Amino acid sequence: MAMIQCLCGEVGIEVTGEPVAQLYCHCDDCQLVHGAACVPTAIYRTKDVVIVHGEAREWRLRTTPRYACPNCGTRLFAQGSEAFRGVNAYLLPPGTFYPTLHIYCRFAALPVADALPHYATVPARWGGSDETVDWGWADGSSDVPQSAPIAPAEEP
Description:
By secondary structure, the chain is mostly beta strands. It has one helix spanning 28-34, and strands spanning 2-5, 12-15, 21-25, 39-45, 49-53, 57-60, 65-68, 75-78, 84-88, 101-103. The chain has one domain (2-126): Beta Complex (Metal Binding Protein, Guanine Nucleotide Exchange Factor, Chain A).
């Protein structure tokens, strides 16, 4: 069991049970909602994610119900289906988020170099196709490419 809360502490959530999956989501909605290239998400059964104090505000960008603190705006979780809630993993205690895959990589803002599978949408076991994204590193290796150092800005 883990107790998590929004940044201001107004909304507290009890998370019990084990996550069904832990992943990085690159879908358009997550990028827009979080202002990030991808979102670390831990998927739990709905019954295992319970608001124990405060009241989260429900809202939708398109169709997925999302819940946030009405005071500080912390994104708490999304109700992906009636059975599952995707908890924003950055709220979990340190050392409890162990992602095993990336989903919706066809929408990725940037290539990602790690050893996890990178699904274009979602795995077949979740109704997808198992199609993956090949980031196509120029040298054909699986090594993480090194970016060039950024030069400091010139003073005006």
